Every structure is written in C-alpha cells, then in structure tokens.
Amino acid sequence: MTATSLHPPTHESARRLPRDLALVTVAIDAVMVLVNLAVQLAPDTPEGAQMRGTYALPGVWIPMVCSIGMAWVLAAALAWSHGRNALEKRGVDSVSRLARPRLRYAAAYLVVLLLNFYALSPLLYEVQLLFMPGGRLHEAVEPASIRTVMAVFVFLQSIAQLIVLVLGVWAAAWVALRAGRAAQLEPAAEAPGSVEDLGGASPRRAVALVGAAMFAALQMWGGVAMSRWSSMGRGVDGPELLFAWMVPPLVVFALAFWGGWLGAAPVLARARPFRAVAASVLAFVLVQVSCIVIAIAWLYIASSTSGLSGLGGLIGFVLAFALVYAIHVVMLMRAATRWLYRRYL
C-alpha cells in the first residue's frame, strides 16, 4: 500500500495548495481594500462625503478597479506558481508534511500588506509631495521640467509597487513552504510523482494560464502607470472608458494564452511555473520594444510621405498597429515559452 493511499486527505490537501494560496492571496487583498475604503468613505463627515463623490466618478473608480484587479491577478498567479513549484520540486508527500502552510502564508502576506499600506505607500506619497507646489524640491526644478520629473517619479513609483508585490508574495510563500529541520532530515516517502499525481491543470494549460495572466497583468500595469501622468483618455467617460480599460487586457490575455499554448508542447511533463513567469516577462518586454520601434519607424515614413493625412489614414494606422501588436504577442510569447522550456520538451 502506498503512502498516498495511507493518507489520501493529507495528499489531496497538498495537491490543492497552489489553488488555496492563490485564493488566500485574493481574499486578504480584498479584505484590505474593503477596510481601506470603509475607513475613507464610511465616516459621515464632509471629508467622507467628498471622498464618496470622488470615487463615484467613472474616471476615478474605473482605473482604480482595473488597477486592483491587475494586482490581484498578478499576486494570485505568483502565489499559485510558488505552490505548484513546491509540489513539482519536492513532491506531494514532502509538501503534505508542512505544518499549516496556508495559515503561515496568510499571516506573512497580511504583514506584508500592512507594511505596504501603512509604511511604503505613505512614504512614497510624502516623496511625491516634495515635487508638488509648495514642496521643498519644487523650486529646485525648472517649471518646464516639473512635468517630466513627476512623470519619471510616478513611473518609478509604479515600478517600486510592482517589485514590492512580487517580493511580498515571495516572502509569504517562503515562510509558508519552508520545512523545519526535522522535516528536512526525514526521508521522503514519495518521490515527485507524475503530472497526474500533482492534480490541478495539465502542465501545458498551467503554463499558458500563468503566462497569460502575467502578460495581461503587466499590460494593465503599464496602462495604469501611463494613466497617472498621461492626458490620454481624460476626455472619455462612462461606458467608453470602461471598454477601454477592460477589453484590451482580456484580448491580450487570450492572445498570450494562445502563444503560451503553442510554445508548450503537449508532451510537457512539468509546469515549472516560474519559467512561464519569465517567458511572459521576456515576451512582454520584447513586444513593447519591438512595437515602439515599429511605430516610430512607421510614423517617420508616413510623415515623410504624407501617409497619415486625414482621419482615414489615422484609423488605418491604428488598426494596422493593433494587428501588428497582436501578432507580436502571439509569436513572441510562443518563442519565449518554447525557448525557456526547451529542456522539458
């Protein structure tokens, strides 16, 4: 009789660990957001009424909801990847011996979020105030350069928040998945099993899902970072704004999933989720760089030949560029996935 048949509930619980870590991540994030909103909006004061009026504006709540959703998808994908990676590298039996990994993960992740909410975010806000009118550094910067300085700072702030999110999930997973000394010395009763032993999605589907989630989250993150200082979209309101924020990430998710699915062959034996994360980041960077170069070259050629004259030329350029972008997402996601998984194919 195998160890799995002796302790099926424990092993089943271990197989559900990646999914549970992702759900715990989203649940804690949701509670923190609700508590923060309640603190800001609940008080029956003039300030609370002003905040409620501000959050009721589509130009405020739509980007905010999309930004929160982006962070949740990114954090959940990373948490799932940590759990799946532990199962694949250490085996189901070894993971099943961990003492309350979900509780330890929840506690560690909650501490990370509290530090982010009440330490890092206020600190970044205070630094931003230095460049605002009346700030200490406002007079040191020329008026013509203040917008550029603010744009660079906001972009760096978005980078810092992204790094904190990634490191926060990593730290919580490290606390949850590290084995004690006794567990490390105890011989494993089961070697890492086959793909079926791990449960959950097949390796090919897991690679495509993680890669697509990461790519779409990075795409949304780029949009959030740009919207903080760009004037694009400020004249759009209501359903059009919701469409502009929601539909492109969903389309990008589908395209990235397709590319990841093509890159991961059906014979893939292991998901190796962090290779999917790396493939997604690599593909995202390559897509942005290549499309920026193509756009600049295209605009230069069109301006030299008057190819963008009139509304028809502009619409044609936008449609053609969207098609080029979609092709790049699929092809570069496929190439990055195939390259990083070449030893497993």
From TrEMBL:
| Protein species of origin | Variovorax paradoxus
Q: Which UniProt keywords apply?
A: Membrane, Transmembrane, Transmembrane helix
User: What residue ranges are annotated as transmembrane?
Assistant: 21-39, 59-80, 106-125, 145-177, 206-222, 242-264, 276-301, 313-333
Q: Does the keyword Iron apply?
A: no
- Please indicate if the UniProt record lists Membrane as a keyword: yes
- Mind telling me what this protein is named? Uncharacterized protein
